[in-house]
């Protein structure tokens, strides 16, 4: 039986809107196929993990304050994360975690929280904390070779610029910038997105894309009727 190993970073600090739920979905979809799924947790002050041992590194989202709290610790992990990523470890990043893999996140007061700079993008918050991108979002992506309309929920002030390879095209909502055209960041072993917790429960194809990448092979199909029906309702409501 194959097994995937995931490192979930800062689950105690970066877990807005149930971002940890994405781990439940990956684990469930592996279990249904007889694939093992071992999830280790890492947070501030724990011994530095051997990042290269993992098939996937996952970081959720958080408010500015939590991002500030973890920033230095994350920087101390830079070398290990970069090496793992370059060796093919999958990076799955939500909102605050997404922002901190870029060059920096500049908050509403103009203070920079340094990012790891693995990617060229950078994020700047608007001058007013009240200007936020909040609500449902629909994004069209082709990462599996077929069009998937991803349904999600976003809540961020930060406006992310300099994205050359987005996760998809915004059909409803904002995405990387207010009223933007593109959402997230994508490489074959990176999915970074502003879509929070329910992302994988609503969009099982994205979960399977990642599992398939990690096991280096095709997956047996699961019945996703409920997921497709739920998504259908949202698409009808939002894209009508
Ligand atoms: N603090 C960041 C922002 O507002 C990230 C928020 C989040 O992770 N939801 O842009």
Oligomeric state as shown: single chain
Cα gyration radius (Å): 17 Å
Distance between the termini: 44 Å
Number of domains: 1
> How much is the average pLDDT?
96
Class by alpha and beta content: alpha/beta
Strand content: 25-35%
CATH topology: Rossmann fold
| Count of DSSP strands | 14
The main sheet comes to: 6 strands, mixed
Strand order of the largest sheet: 2-1-3-4-14-13
Helix content: 25-40%
For the record, what CATH class applies? Alpha Beta
**Apparent shape:** globular
Query: In terms of per-residue confidence, which ranges show pLDDT below 50 for 5 or more consecutive residues?
Result: none
- Which second-level CATH architecture applies? 3-Layer(aba) Sandwich
Number of helices: 7
The distinct ligands, each listed once, are: glutamine
Q: Give the ordered list of helices and strands.
A: EHEEHHEHEEEEEEEEEEHHH
CATH superfamily: Class I glutamine amidotransferase (GATase) domain
Question: Topology, pairings included?
Answer:
Blueprint: E1 3-9, H1 21-31, E2 36-42, E3 56-59, H2 64-76, H3 78-86, E4 90-94, H4 96-99, E5 104-106, E6 112-114, E7 122-124, E8 133-141, E9 148-156, E10 159-161, E11 168-172, E12 182-183, E13 185-187, E14 190-193, H5 199-202, H6 204-215, H7 225-239
Parallel strand pairs: 1-2, 1-3, 3-4, 4-14, 5-7
Antiparallel strand pairs: 5-6, 7-10, 8-9, 8-11, 11-12, 13-14
Helix pairs in contact: 1-6
Glutamine binds next to helix 2 and strand 9.
